[in-house]
Amino acid sequence: MSMKKWLLGVLAAAAVIGTVTGCGSSPSASSAAPSAKSEITVGVTPGPYEQIMEAVTKEAAKEGLTVHVKTFSDYVTPDQALANGDIDLNAYQHEPFLDNFNEKNGTRLVSIGKTILSPLGVYSRKYKTAEQIPDGATIAIPNDPTNGGRALQLLASKGWIQLKSGLGSKATVADITSNPKQIKIIELEAAQLPRSLDDTDASVINDNYALNAGLNSQKDALFAESKDSPYVNIIASRPEDKDNPAYQKFVKAWQSDSVKKFIDDTFKGAFIAAW
Length: 275
What we know:
single chain, alpha/beta, D-Maltodextrin-Binding Protein, domain 2, 2 domains, six-stranded mixed beta sheet, 9 helices, 13 strands, globular
């Protein structure tokens, strides 16, 4: 056999071995963990969440993670953007709200970490105490699912209305079974509620929008949710990304001692670190 033919045979055999080896290794490659990112984009709502994210991004940078913040003006678009892959994570909502979004949209977004409790409060520019609220008062509540039910629960806790039992945050105005004060309830987009105070007797406002308007649930609300409220806010991701190392770094950064101190010092109890 000539040297040329012998060499060609060796090369052909090597090619076959390489092909077999490559085929054998493909299952382990497909099961490999997702590669870590060095940059991520996180969706939030305006005001306090943007402020907290300044502290979080500084902490994340210590771990080599660059965090870009994208601000949304409403409560629905951040979840749509996450489901569509336009952002990597969002941090603005509680789990009942996320569950409702998933149910209505056929998505499977998941929580990967707790952040803060943002108490819902009842505010008024016309009255100084809850006892001054008259019969027949007009009260505005959020019109989004879960936060509307949450607001109704808060009004019910004061005895102003009664609701069908067992509904929790799924309660709607149609589920009011008794209204002894003859309250007129109007439903508005959450971001519009602070501006509604000039036209209502009282409004039930999410704390992030209240803070944007210079209101603090611990000082300015007629009454507010207690600190043991179940509506703790979360960081959400797509289900296939929940174990991404970069996203876990972000959760660790948010839940750091320095971010907790920032929240405590900045918001004076209006937002409560809840991890």
